[in-house]
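Colleagues,

For the teaching module next term, I've prepared a clean inverse folding example: a structure given as tokens, and then the sequence designed for it. I'd like students to try predicting residues themselves before seeing the answer, so please don't circulate the second half yet.
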């Protein structure tokens, strides 16, 4: 059934599918780990049972999300060997050590303290348990650091040489490789996106339960904390995103041209195209809604600044415009929607109606999945804009793939789709079920009773009189 289909297209579709699923869970667990550290810190400082209840509620959800993120990440790594072996061979001397550092620092840190965080509150002191929670939060951030450094190097490679075997090898200093030109912007932008994604899920949970009972103290606190995050961090994200865009214009101009829909150059100021239909055959935008010269103002801070278009880029080096144009608008549109929700919550808070406006709560519930959609749209914008390269300007995608036949790649793609929707669908359903129950006073911990293995039976707490253990 896959005869005649380009195996490279299938390999790209498979990686896009698996990484999109994977990206959902780290974008949630990074923010949730920090939120848990804040909650436990507030509990230790104030002694209020309210914070401990909320902590115990969200730590159960974190455990499920973290596990699904780990499993989906492992699957992705195998694809580098099966579908992208040429890419792995050529970039291994650079990307391999970066991924190894992620395992040696972040993953070991998370794995070492995760058990204490999930099961150790009654077994270790409060301060040690808080330390474990903080270490897990730090571990998620370190993991993002190394992964985004590796990914950013693929977009803005530097500090490398090419050896006789055609491999990229480090030349000069690893610091040059790690802190490549796009890394600081991409790292900050992605981590903030994770915090906003988490705040929307937390806010939607609080809003859902406020709609059922606006006097619920747990729902009030959850919703209030989430709306503070949206109100404060969303405008920061808009600023960081703008700076990231300027960096992209400098190092990957073709990506920005496609994002803006600029098929043609504009020597006297480029318009900001709000909406339109890219026509790749005629190389033009149709049914355009635009604001004259505003794109030049945003990108060059000058209304009349000239902006080059895709007509200056060879056809075989242009990214696909339609995907980039729309994914970028989905990301930006949702970003401003999050900003609007934060402003709305500030107005409600100022008027003393934060817990009394049902339409605000309905909007909070509706915006719950918006962060996940925005981060996936952002990932599509970033990675599609790198095409037709895997290492920008140096290694093309068509030269990175393994010598596989289309049926082999297609069969594994179908298997991934079926297994992912079954396994992660059940996991997501379980998380939603936990969220639907809400937080209760005296929230219990994760069950830490001994696991019964085959052929064993736990001893009773008190043996019958005269019977020895």
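(Answer key — instructors only)
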């Amino acid at each position: 059934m896959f005869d005649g289909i380009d195996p490279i297209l299938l390999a790209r579709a498979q990686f896009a599918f698996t990484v999109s699923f994977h990206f959902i869970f780290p974008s949630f667990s990074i923010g949730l780990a920090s939120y848990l550290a804040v909650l436990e810190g507030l509990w230790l400082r104030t002694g209020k049972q309210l914070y401990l209840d909320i902590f115990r509620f969200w730590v159960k959800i974190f455990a499920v999300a973290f596990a699904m993120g780990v499993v989906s990440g492992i699957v992705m790594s195998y694809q580098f060997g099966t579908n992208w072996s040429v890419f792995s061979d050529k970039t291994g001397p650079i990307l391999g050590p970066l991924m190894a550092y992620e395992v040696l620092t972040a993953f070991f840190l998370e794995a070492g303290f995760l058990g204490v965080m999930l099961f150790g509150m009654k077994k270790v002191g409060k301060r040690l348990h808080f330390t474990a929670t903080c270490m897990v939060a730090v571990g998620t951030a370190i993991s993002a650091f190394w992964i985004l450094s590796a990914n950013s190097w693929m977009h803005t490679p530097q500090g490398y040489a090419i050896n006789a075997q055609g491999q990229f090898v480090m030349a000069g200093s690893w610091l040059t490789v790690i802190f490549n030109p796009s890394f600081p912007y991409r790292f900050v932008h992605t981590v903030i996106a994770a915090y906003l994604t988490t705040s929307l899920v937390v806010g939607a949970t609080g809003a859902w339960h406020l709609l059922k009972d606006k006097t619920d103290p747990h729902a009030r606190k959850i919703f209030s904390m989430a709306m503070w995050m949206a109100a404060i961090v969303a405008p920061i994200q808009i600023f960081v995103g703008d700076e990231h865009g300027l960096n992209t214009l400098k190092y990957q101009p073709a990506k920005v041209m496609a994002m803006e829909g600029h098929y043609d150059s504009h020597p006297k100021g480029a318009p900001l195209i709000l909406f339109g239909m890219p026509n790749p055959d005629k190389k033009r935008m149709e049914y355009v809604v635009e604001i004259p010269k505003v794109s030049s103002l945003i990108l060059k801070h000058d209304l009349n600044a000239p902006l080059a278009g895709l007509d200056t880029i060879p056809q075989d080096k242009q990214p696909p415009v339609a995907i980039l144009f729309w994914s970028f608008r989905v990301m930006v549109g949702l970003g401003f929607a999050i900003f609007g929700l934060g402003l709305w919550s500030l107005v409600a808070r100022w008027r003393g109606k934060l817990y009394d406006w049902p339409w605000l709560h309905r909007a909070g519930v509706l915006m719950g999945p918006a962060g996940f959609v925005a981060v996936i749209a952002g990932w599509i914008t970033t990675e599609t804009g790198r095409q037709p390269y895997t290492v920008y300007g140096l290694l093309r995608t068509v030269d990175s793939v393994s010598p596989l036949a289309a049926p082999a790649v297609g069969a594994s793609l179908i298997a991934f789709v079926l297994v992912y929707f079954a396994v992660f669908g059940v996991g997501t359903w379980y998380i939603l079920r936990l969220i639907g129950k809400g937080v209760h006073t005296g929230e219990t911990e994760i069950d830490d009773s001994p696991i019964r293995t085959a052929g064993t039976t736990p001893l009773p707490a008190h043996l019958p009189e005269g019977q020895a253990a």
